Amino acid sequence: MTQRGRAVLAAAVLVGAALAVPLEAYLKFGLVLGNDVRVLRQALPVRYFVRDLPVEGVSVADLDTAVSRAFDAWAGVASATVRAERVGLTSASPLEEDGITVIGFALQPDLERTLGATHYTIDITTGRIVEADIFLNSRFDWSVAAGGEPGRFDVESIALHEVGHLFGLGHSALGETERQGSGRRLLAAGSVMFPIAFPPGSLEGRRLRPDDVAGISDLYPGPRFQDETGSVTGRVTRNGRGMFGAHVVAFNLTSGRLVGNFTLSDDGRFAIAGLDPGPTVLRVEPLDDGDVESFLQPVTGIETDFRVTYSPQLVIVPRGGSVDGGVIEVSR
Amino acid sequence: MRLVLTLLVTVLAIAPVLDATTSIPAGVAELAREASLVVLGRVGRVTAVQDPATGRVERHVTVVAERVAKGTARDEVVVVVPGGTAGRYRTVFVGAPDFEPGESVVLFLAPAVRGGWRVLGLGGGVFRVADLAEGRLVIPPPILPQARSPAGASGRIVRGAQAGQLVTVDEFLARVSDLLDRPPARGRVP
Question: Is the distance from CB of B47 to CB of B72 less than 8 angstroms?
Fold first, then answer.
């Protein structure tokens, strides 16, 4: 890990200890402000505009409805408190810095593999989010068809992912890809926050998964979230030394639900919150199958040269509490 | 007890920006085919520039070319990357790669619409190079077509399956050249 990264990390520890921040167990956007690290959280409700620009196959009304459904999905998470408010239509582009949050289509010819993206403007003297826009790249073909449409990407699925970012969630690594010809494609994802999209025509990305629910609830917890779920903490080591950037997945044997997070310190500590109570298996795996920067920055010091390893014993996640999952030693 | 454990864990995201794009993944073969320029180089300057028309900030990353595996390049290549800090405002184009002066990278590039070069697939076209005891390695090892995974050329990509399979930057560039069906480049093109 770079000295910069260590300094940032140290700042995070100190801030956490000094201010007694609540458990932050899902990957979120962080902002370095001097010696401080802040989690980006939106002031609620998020007030947004929809760009009044249609594309072939998707009218402005279609876009408006799909975006609204995406916000509704996040707002419908019972254990979280996120809310959004549609202000109206606008001719403003989501690519402009204008102080308002705009969601809509925009042509980004240089982004030949990016379906959509969220970007923020932040006042670095205060940490305030000045605006956060989402664009859907109109160089691709889009659809809002209820059953999906071959050759076209689903607006609601991509909007659902990007709205998760708008609220402050980072990427989840719960997904699996395969080689296909000279490229790759997504086989399965355990989270809409997995950074790789399903192929055109798929509607798989329209449904929030337990990992998403845990993440948004951890960031904007409802009054009963911490009482009704549990968490697990632990360490991942290699040759006895803590390891940064390992992906840790909690699998509940009763509910079958998966929730993931990463080791986010040099001593290899991790925390996963929002778990169903009950017997749980922990699996540690390297981020060696894709763009590490998609999950963590800086990437220097992230180890990916080890084999998948399971916790030596089951952990029993308590309701309303936390369990120590112990140390998981990995090796090449 | 929970509060105590809470204080022991470090769970804040550690960076000013994380990726927030939804993307279509690219394999190395696709990147090699689509790139106009594939270059091994060392990052020099990183300069933030604000577009007066939109207010958006982009970074101009100067990369000193060491070897060119595809295309032609002068000694320095300027890569345009969205996002950056101008004055008190930071434009965070989440998904764009971060570059540190002095680091070595292999970049798969295409011409940017407004001049300069852009990275294919945002971060997907960036491969970091580290000088380690085992050699000058690409970290993490790139997922190459065929051979490099027990899953085979068309199977699932299994995390951890590449453990211990080190890929030097020379091997990587040679594979890229193989994919392009031409001999490896020997040096920078003036």
Answer: no
Which residues 227-286 in chain A show a CB within 8 A of chain B? 231, 233, 247, 261, 264-265, 269-271, 285-286
In Å, how far is A50's CA from the nearest CA of chain B?
Answer: 18
Residues 6+ apart with CB under 8 A from A140: A115, A153
Task: Spell out the CATH class of A46-215.
Answer: alpha beta
Containing A117, the helix (H) or strand (E) segment is strand A114-123
- Enumerate the β-bridge partners of residue B48: B59
How far apart CA B22 and CA B56 sit, in angstroms, is: 20
- ipTM rounded to 2 decimals: 0.81
- Spans of all domains in chain A: 46-215, 229-332
Token pair for residue B93?
């184009």
Q: What is the pTM of this model?
A: 0.86
Note the CATH architecture for domain B20-179.
Beta Barrel (2.40)
Cβ of B1 within 8 Å of Cβ of A297? The answer is no
Q: A77 CB near a chain B CB, below 8 Å?
A: no
- Residue A251: what are its φ and ψ, rounded to 5°? -115, 115
Give the pair of three-digit tokens for residue A111.
Answer: 């982004």
**pLDDT tens digits for range A320-332:** 999 999 999 999 8
Pairing of strands B57-70, B37-50: antiparallel
- The runs of H, that is alpha helices, within chain A are 3-19, 60-75, 155-167, 210-219, 225-228
Q: Which residues pair with B8 in a beta bridge?
A: none
Answer whether B170's CB lies under 8 Å from B186's CB.
Answer: no
Kindly report whether the peptide bond that precedes residue B111 is cis, defined as omega within 30 degrees of 0. no
CA distances in angstroms from A241 to A4, A7, B89, B165, listed in the order given: 20, 19, 38, 21
Contacts of B85 in chain A (CB under 8 A): 124
CATH of A229-332 among 3.65.10.10, 2.60.40.10, 3.30.930.10, 2.40.30.110 = 2.60.40.10
**For the segment A10-30, what is each residue's pLDDT rounded down to a tens digit?**
222 222 222 222 334 566 677
